[in-house]
Structures are given as structure tokens and as C-alpha cells.
């Protein structure tokens, strides 16, 4: 569960940064 949540948050951050740029 922890790993899945971390992966989900990681992808969310990547998409957020990508959108910011």
C-alpha cells in the first residue's frame, strides 16, 4: 500500500511539474 501510494504521488508530482512548465 505504501509503495503504491508513493508511486501514485510521484506520478502526480511529475505531471504537475510537467504542466507547470
TrEMBL record:
Domain of life: Eukaryota
Protein name: Protein kinase domain-containing protein
Amino acid at each position: 500500500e505504501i509503495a503504491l501510494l508513493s508511486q501514485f504521488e510521484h506520478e502526480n508530482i511529475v505531471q504537475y511539474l510537467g504542466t507547470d512548465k
